[in-house]
Specification:
It is built from 14 helices and 15 strands. It is α/β, with parallel strands linked by helices and 394 residues long. The strands form two sheets. Strands 1, 2, 3, 4, 5, 6, 7, 8 and 9 form a nine-stranded mixed β-sheet that branches. A six-stranded mixed β-sheet has the order 14-13-10-11-12-15, with helices on both faces. α9 links the parallel β13 and β14. α8 crosses α9 (301-308). The protein is elongated. The mean pLDDT is 94. The structure holds adenosine-5'-triphosphate (ATP) and magnesium ion. Magnesium ion binds next to loops. Magnesium ion (MG) is lined by residues 188, 190, 346, 348.
């Protein structure tokens, strides 16, 4: 069946008063961005407190639904068939033919719900619902009306035209990206950080990303993998800027100057410092990482404390209490898993010590870092100055 439009349902509980406009405008904007990537023309409109996507041209139904399922803030997607508004009898015929096309051998219970945008219509909503119900009962022997728990809810909206729909496809929920500020994701090539970015974007936060690259120890393909992951995340979060920081000289300098078992922790502290500087310049209000307690040596509570200590921006760690398996499940759902497991080296693994400290003492780490005083400021400045910015999803 050809659907002419989609009614977009969103949760209205959290959006009273002025916030409602911000929420709806962001929802319209993000829906447009998601559909722009597809073939065909779509019109996304806000009409009397509802959002509709109109499809005036040919389009791919499955692909359109998939795109809408990635727009945070949408809780339901109802495919709509639109008929001309030419009096009650014509409407009743159209509704019956809708049912015949959608549910050819319908024998279940149903309920008709009529909404009139045009209150001058000569029948009340109740009368229209009852009369349409009677026509459906006639057309489908064996079906029944159940106003309390029908197996099919058929909605008929009387507007300039007649809108008919009966199915609600589940949306992703969350809040439209852009309603809750922006944050900087530390994106590595692993499984966790893309999932972390997805989860924070789901709460309405726009996401930019930073990747620490260590050529020649990490290859172009490792970098390409991160670009690919950023693209996959941006299918949900919308366009993002990916900052690629050359971290090699900083890593080598730490390797030369500091005890090797502290290397990972000191490196991670510099990643956070640099990410924070880029974040502040880009108007980000926080950092996002894919850390989860106990997952690896650098994610014990002591290590997290040592990493956190250098940050002044809040660090959001949406996976902090998740098991690996739970994270993997989400990565499958958002389609990042296959890319994440491609076997390219990570800048952390190359310099990793045989026995990294698992309970770093912040005082000891700070003392080790004083050995970096001579050159580190200049190296950090160079890393910032030479960072490459890649626009993703624009
Ligand atoms: P992931 O699967 O996200 O790579 P991980 O289990 O490998 O995580 P770590 O290597 O300890 O864990 O990294 C913890 C977090 O630090 C990552 O989730 C990511 O947010 C950030 N991070 C690690 N390496 C990099 C990198 N090269 N560039 C940017 N961020 C990084
Ligand atoms: Mg990693």
């Amino acid at each position: 069946m050809l659907f002419h439009a989609f009614l977009i349902k969103y949760a209205e509980i959290a959006i009273k008063g002025k916030n409602r406009y911000l929420f709806e405008d962001a929802l319209v904007r993000q829906t447009r961005i998601a559909l722009d990537a597809l073939e065909g023309e779509f019109q996304v409109c806000k009409e009397r407190g509802r959002v509709y996507v109109y499809c005036p041209e040919e389009y791919d139904y499955e692909e359109t639904i998939e795109a809408l399922k990635r727009v945070f803030g949408i809780v339901g997607i109802c495919p709509v068939v639109i008929y001309e508004n030419k009096g009650f009898d014509r409407m009743a015929e159209d509704v019956v033919s809708y049912m015949q096309a959608q549910y050819p051998s319908f024998r279940e219970s149903f309920k008709v719900h009529c909404r009139r945008a045009d209150k001058s219509y000569p029948m009340t909503s109740m009368e229209v619902s009852a009369e349409l119900g009677a026509r459906i009962l006639d057309a489908f022997p064996g079906c029944s009306v159940d106003v309390h728990e029908p197996s099919l809810n058929l909605t008929v909206e009387i507007r300039e035209k007649i809108y008919v729909y009966s199915e609600t496809i589940k949306g992703p929920g969350g809040m439209p990206v852009g309603t809750n500020g922006k944050a900087m994701l530390l994106l590595s090539g692993g499984i966790d950080s893309p999932v972390a970015g997805y989860m924070i974007a789901k709460r309405g936060v726009k996401v930019d990303a930073v990747y620490f690259h260590a050529p020649p120890y990490t290859s172009e393909r490792a970098k390409q993998k991160v670009v690919d992951l950023a693209k996959l995340v941006s299918r949900y979060s919308g366009p993002m800027r990916l900052h690629v920081v050359n971290f090699t000289d900083i890593q080598l300098y730490i390797y030369d100057q500091c005890p090797h078992e502290e290397l990972t922790i000191i490196m991670r502290r510099y990643m956070m410092r640099i990410a924070e500087q880029i974040a502040q310049k880009s108007g980000c209000l926080g950092l996002i990482t894919g850390e989860s307690i106990g997952q690896v040596a650098s994610q014990t509570l002591q290590s997290l404390a040592a990493t956190n200590e250098v940050c002044t921006l809040p660090v959001y760690r949406p996976l902090i209490g998740f098991d690996k398996q739970e994270i993997v499940e989400i990565s499958h759902k958002i389609n990042t898993y296959e890319t994440s497991i491609q076997p390219f080296e990570d800048c952390c693994t190359i310099f990793v010590a045989k026995h990294p400290v698992t309970k770093p003492n912040i005082k000891v780490i700070q003392r080790s870092e004083t050995r970096l005083d001579e050159k580190m400021d200049a190296l950090v400045q160079t890393a910032l100055d030479t960072a490459e910015v890649i626009s993703i999803g624009e």
